[in-house]
Structure formats: C-alpha cells, structure tokens
Amino acid sequence: MRTKFIFFSGKGGVGKTSMACATAIYYADQGKKTLVVTTDPAANLSDVFEQEIGHKVTKINGIENLYAMEIDPDKATEEYKERCLAPMRELFDEEMLKIAEEQLSGPCTEEMAAFDKFIDFMEEDSYDMIIFDTAPTGHTIRLLELPVDWSRHIEESSKGSGQTCMGPVALIQESKKKYDDAVSKLRDPEQTDFIFVMQPEETSLKETIRSINELKEIGITTTKIIVNGLIPREEAINPFFKSRYDMQQTYLSKAKDIFNNIPIQTMELFDSELKGIEMFRKVAERLFEGSDIHG
C-alpha cells in the first residue's frame, strides 16, 4: 500500500522544501492529485513555484494535479480562536466571551492552531497525496507531542481552574478524537512516511539523530533519510572542494553507520538554483532514479 502522507523534516536550511517540492511534482506528473503544504513560518513555496501562494490552497501553474498552501501562523491562530469561540457566542455574554478570548491568548495557542490546521489536511479526502514541508524539527516535534500528552493535560487542568494553555478544557475535549485519529495516522507507516533531510556535516547529523530518537519515543517511525548537498566526486579535484568533499564523505559514512536500519538516499549539489517546475523535475528524476522514495 502506498502511503498518502509524506512529511519532510530537518534543520532549517537543509533543503526540505526542495525535496518536498520535487516529490510533489513527481506524484503530480504520475497523475496523482497532490497537495504540498508548508508549516514552516519561513515558508518559500511562492519563491520555488514562482507564483503567489499564501494561506489558501492554490493551483500551481504550468502543471496538472498540483496544489500548494503556505500556512500563515497568524491567520491560522485567528481561525483556531474563532472556531473555539463560535459555539460560545450565542451562549455567553460579552464579559464571558472576553475571558474565553483571553484564555485563548496563551503562549501555545499559536502552536495548537498550526497543528489544528495541518490535521485538517490529514482528514482531507480530495487529494491522493499530501506532502508536508515542516518547520525546523524541534517545533514540529512539539506539535506532534501536544496531543500525545492530552489526557494527562486535561486531567490536571480539570482538577484546577479548568483552564489549559490551549484554551478551556471543554473546547479541547471536543478536538481530542480528531487529534487522536491524526496521531494514529502519523504512527502508521502504511499511511505516513516521515523523511528527514540532512546535510553531510556535524550539526545536521546531531540534530537528525536527536529528532529521529524523539519521534521514536512518541511512536513515529522514520522511513527514509536524504543526505542532501553532496559535492560530486568529479568536482573534488579542486583543493577547496577536495577537503570539503572528504569531510562530507566522512559524515555520510557516519550517518550510514548510525542509521543502519533506515534507507539513506544521497543528493548531489546542482550547478544552478532550484526554482521552477522544470528544475524540480530534474531533482525528482535523481530522487526517484531506480528506486521509489518509499524505500
């Protein structure tokens, strides 16, 4: 069975967006209705596809079957607050609504809102493939951990003020089933692929090790690692590139030793900027050359 959801994660700047877009284009070209969603606040899908996208599902020009959306954290937060407050408007007076609104201005409401938004997509039936280009890893993992910690969180809050950092307990309980369903999809390797993108260097390797272990603790399996940005061997004749090439090869073999039970794919540097559909078709060719991205 082919998975429906593919997450690309990793440190900022490792090439997640490029790999996510190349994968999306590959599936769209296969005739699958594909959506690529970014939850990264520093999103650049608009740059990559050279058209305005923003906080709405947008058809990508020049290719069939491809849609994209950049989740805007501020707009997502407003929508989430409104969704929470709407059922209360007819029941409560202004003062009570004001209190509820204040309760929804807690520090993690924004994270909940982003999570809520991408879970909406995990319930979506009108796409064959949904590809998530996620924010730098720590942020993503915190979002995934929120629902896992749910029950304890609700229990503790109901003993106290009936208030949680996500808003009033009553509102959260309504969302619990929706979130539990999403987490079970995330934990099911037949429905969801979790792919890490890393660069062949120490900080990126350390971050990937830490993140993969954290995901494992909450029951999410990493299905593939893409080591991106390798200098091609034929370029290593230049002394500057040679020393960098040697360093990269050292970290690549370390990664292969450490992640010996996870498929690893390598991507060499391109000699031009990654932009536009034709360029990403070339990336997709390399990415899917002789093997499927699902390992």
From TrEMBL:
Organism: Thermosediminibacter litoriperuensis
Domain ArsA/GET3 Anion-transporting ATPase-like: 3-288
Stored InterPro entries: ArsA/GET3_ATPase-like (IPR025723), ATPase_ArsA/GET3 (IPR016300), P-loop_NTPase (IPR027417)
Protein family (similarity comment): Belongs to the arsA ATPase family.
Pfam families: ArsA_ATPase
GO MF annotations, alphabetized: ATP binding; ATP hydrolysis activity
Protein name stated in the entry: Arsenite efflux ATP-binding protein ArsA (TC 3.A.4.1.1)
Key words, A-Z: ATP-binding, Nucleotide-binding
